[in-house]
Write a structure and sequence with these properties.
- Pfam families: CofH_C (PF19288), Radical_SAM (PF04055).
- Its EC number is 1.21.98.1.
- There is one protein chain.
- By secondary structure, this protein is an alpha/beta fold.
- The chain has a single domain, classed as Alpha-Beta Barrel (TIM Barrel), CATH 3.20.20.
- About 45% of the residues lie in helices and about 10% in strands.
- The protein has a 3-stranded parallel sheet with strand order 8-1-9, covered by helices on one side. Strands 2-3-4 form a 3-stranded parallel sheet, covered by helices on one side. A 3-stranded parallel sheet has the order 5-6-7.
- The chain is globular.
- About 50% of the residues are buried.
């Protein structure tokens, strides 16, 4: 036991000195560190990066423009196959109505995501994005990497051309969805028809090089090892060293919602360990966002003591990862109250993390 404590102490000394921890250090933290030790280290990194007692949030809304998708990820109960009578594609007017409701609340970000709908090509997205931007002063945080890749393939254009055309039409940033675990052995088990880890990283690198920033995510709790979680974090850190394009990182636990995977719910204890190690390892990603949507508001609030500095979006609507845990989505007043009660100052931001108040 003394030897194990000595290893954790050596890692803590690295963190205190601002030194980068290694892959082996990350595994050691996951497997051996106590929750209090992780909290202390993650909190140290958080205050080094953000010396003011501010926790940010954004007023945003998710709009799932279609649920038609052929990829059939085992953890998703949202999708419907192209032949399903339950499949839908929102009309422009329906999308506009949702954006207008968001703007009435002072919202600044619309997260537009759907599935791999075979009937939609690049011209659909160019028309939709341009129509939104000409009507509304809203930030388009849109499309997962797998959607972008599929748009390119189905439209018979290169990935770079696809991103350039989407950017010209109004795409301003990309959500980190679809990362799951950037370990192909895990991806083959949970989403065998989805892109590989290298494909996900390639889309992000190409977007960053074109000046399109993105967030990054990690869905854990699907039977992976601690080393595989660290492998995911290392890949994010390595790409960030190269592009500096990731604005934030959001780890979240798999939560069963009637999907085919049928795993077990992640615990609050496991989430706090994971978010703390993420903050400690990702020394080059400025912001760590609370995953209150999957873990619940109170665990989200507690995560502010484990390296989290951002409470994410008000969301308003969620269809993909919503579970009984989070059946009641939070208003921005509730977000502000949760942040204040944890001893921090809530401040509204935009998608690029610029403060608006």
């Amino acid at each position: 036991m003394a030897e194990l404590n000595g290893k954790i102490e050596a890692i803590a000394e690295k963190v205190e000195a601002g030194e980068r921890i290694t892959f082996d250090d990350g595994v050691e933290l996951f497997e051996r560190a106590t929750l209090l030790e992780l909290s202390a280290m993650a909190d140290r990194v958080r205050w080094r990066l953000h010396p003011d007692p501010v926790v940010t949030y954004v007023i945003g809304r998710t709009v799932n423009y279609t649920n038609i998708c052929w990829v059939q990820c085992s953890f998703c109960s949202f999708y419907r196959l192209p032949t399903s009578p339950e499949g839908y594609l929102l009309s422009k007017d329906e999308i506009f109505q949702k954006i207008e409701e968001l703007i009435e609340l002072g919202g600044t970000e619309v997260l537009l995501q759907g599935g791999l709908n075979p009937s939609l090509k690049i011209d659909y997205y160019e028309d939709l994005f341009a129509s939104i931007k000409v009507r509304y002063p809203i930030h388009l945080h849109a499309l997962s990497t797998v959607e972008i890749s599929y748009i390119a393939v189905s439209s018979r254009i290169s990935l770079k051309e696809s991103l350039k055309r989407l950017q010209a039409a109004g795409l301003e940033s990309i959500p980190g969805a679809g990362a799951e675990l950037l370990v192909d052995e895990v991806r083959q088990r949970v989403s065998p028809l989805k892109e590989s880890s290298s494909d996900w990283l390639n889309v992000m690198q190409t977007a960053h090089e074109l000046g399109i920033p993105s967030s990054a995510t990690m869905m854990y709790g699907v039977g992976e090892t601690m080393a595989q979680r660290v492998e995911h974090l290392m890949k994010i850190r390595e790409l960030q060293d190269h592009t500096c394009g990731f604005t934030a990182f959001i780890p979240w636990s798999y939560q069963p919602n009637g999907d085919a995977f049928g795993g077990q719910s992640g615990s609050g204890y496991g989430y706090l360990r994971t978010v703390a190690v993420s903050r400690i390892m990702l020394d080059n990603v400025q912001h760590i966002q609370a995953a209150w949507l999957t873990m619940g508001p109170k665990i989200g609030q507690l995560s502010l003591q484990y390296g989290v500095d951002d409470f994410g979006s008000t969301v308003l609507e969620e269809n993909v990862v919503r579970t009984p845990v989070t059946r009641q989505l939070m208003s921005f007043e509730e977000i502000r109250r949760n942040v204040r009660d944890a001893g921090f100052v809530p401040k509204r931001r935009n998608t690029r993390y610029q403060l608006l108040e």
